[in-house]
Amino acid sequence: MNELNLNTKNIFTNFADVVKVKDLQKMLGIGRNTAYELIATNKIKSVKSGNLILIPKQSVIDFLNNGESVDD
After folding, report:
1. What residues make up the domain containing 57?
2. Cα(34)–Cα(31) distance, integer angstroms
3. Strand pairing report for 18-19 and 47-49
4. What order do you get walking across the sheet with 18-19 strand by strand?
5. Taking Cα atoms as reference points, which of 47, 39, 36, 32 lies closest to residue 63?
6. Number of domains in the chain
7. CA distance 71 to 52
């Protein structure tokens, strides 16, 4: 599969550098279950702080650059 290599300066500018699961859903246009599955399978890197899951925006960009498909 061709590598996409997104321009990180212009993508997701409306989102903070660290996002929550709800933001991840909006960024990728996916449902809640798919978002949690991507996190659980470590396809998108995250950090858990108590009950809060924090996702670096760069992890979302890296996921997209890997060209994996998301089935919702």
Report:
1. 18-65
2. 5
3. unpaired
4. 18-19, 52-56, 47-49
5. 39
6. 1
7. 24
CA–CA–CA angle 2, 8, 12 (5° rounding): 110
CA angle 25, 51, 18 (to 5 degrees): 50
Q: Considering the domain boundaries, does residue 55 fall inside one? A: yes
Dihedral, CA atoms, 11, 20, 3, 6, nearest 10 degrees?
10
β-strand partners of 25? none
- Whole-number pLDDT of residue 66: 86
Instruction: Quick: pLDDT tens for 18-71.
Output: 999 999 999 999 999 999 999 999 999 999 999 999 999 999 999 998 876 666
